[in-house]
Amino acid sequence: MSWVIWVLTSNDFRLLPEPLLSRCPPIRLCHLTLAELLAFVRREGAKRALSEASVEAICEILSHPSLRQHRPRLRVATRMLQRVADLEQGLTLH
């Protein structure tokens, strides 16, 4: 099984038992900066062929001063992009 790679995730590695940590050394990832998050939104918006106005609206929301203390994460930006894509493609009628 030397070719098997395991990826484990944890919000707080300090809560994990020592035997697990000795076998799976943690890799700590830093949070994205606002510039990196906005670059992601613009890149993904272009890939999804979203309108420039929609992409800039998302960037404006993510850059709002009220979010300085609790910067949105990549998951939030991805959900916003998906919602805009859904709206631009039109609503699905059931």
Task: Tell me what you see in this structure.
With 94 residues, the chain is mainly α. 50% of the residues lie in helices and 0% in strands. The protein contains 4 helices and no strands. It is elongated and about 50 Å long. The mean pLDDT is 89.
The SSE order reads HHHH
SS element count, helices: 4
Computed structural class: mainly alpha
Q: Based on DSSP secondary structure assignment, what is the total number of beta strands? A: 0
Question: Unreliable segments (pLDDT under 50, ≥5 consecutive)?
Answer: none
Shape: elongated
Radius of gyration based on Cα positions: 18 Å
Percent helix, as a range, is 40-55%
Distance between the termini: 48 Å
The chain-level mean pLDDT equals: 89
Strand content: under 5%
Q: Major beta sheet, specifics?
A: none
